[in-house]
Amino acid sequence: MNRPAPISVLFLCTHNSARSILAEALLNHLGAGKFVGYSAGSTPRQSGQPNPLALRTLAEAEIPTAGLRSKSWDEFLRPEAPHIDLVITVCGNANEVCPVFPGRPATAHWGYDDPSAGEWPDEIKMVAFRTTLHQIKRRLEAFTSLPAASLEKMALEQSARALAGPRSAP
Fold this sequence. Notes:
Blueprint: E1 7-12, H1 19-30, E2 35-40, H2 52-60, E3 86-91, E4 106-112, H3 122-144, H4 153-164
Parallel strand pairs: 1-2, 1-3, 3-4
Helix pairs in contact: 1-3, 2-3
């Protein structure tokens, strides 16, 4: 019996260095082969390196960080890009217009405040990173536990948007 292809989720945030990186790593950790996570941004960090505090937060939670990098969403517009089933924006204020990805994947918005914002010492920012990781984890645990019928193409967008709560209306 053939196992169905995993559901591919692309998490978007402007710099692809904190929230989207946390979400990508978490989904790949929790997905158990049913899901695969990716992340990207409109203006990724020039160094290509995720925020060091994001990597530290993931390491503390014993979530693998190998292969994580800050990258442009343009990579997912190319013909050789992986197929994407669902695009989730994770910025607190998603003010950008996202591109139309091949295959017209379902979309949702799960807004999180930027844990790297402000001129705070790293130890204070780490509290924000841990809180953001916990918030994303709760949502992804609910998402990965959805019944198969909720993950079919037509229901996927509605299911993902419902997990965002009242602020998720398009």
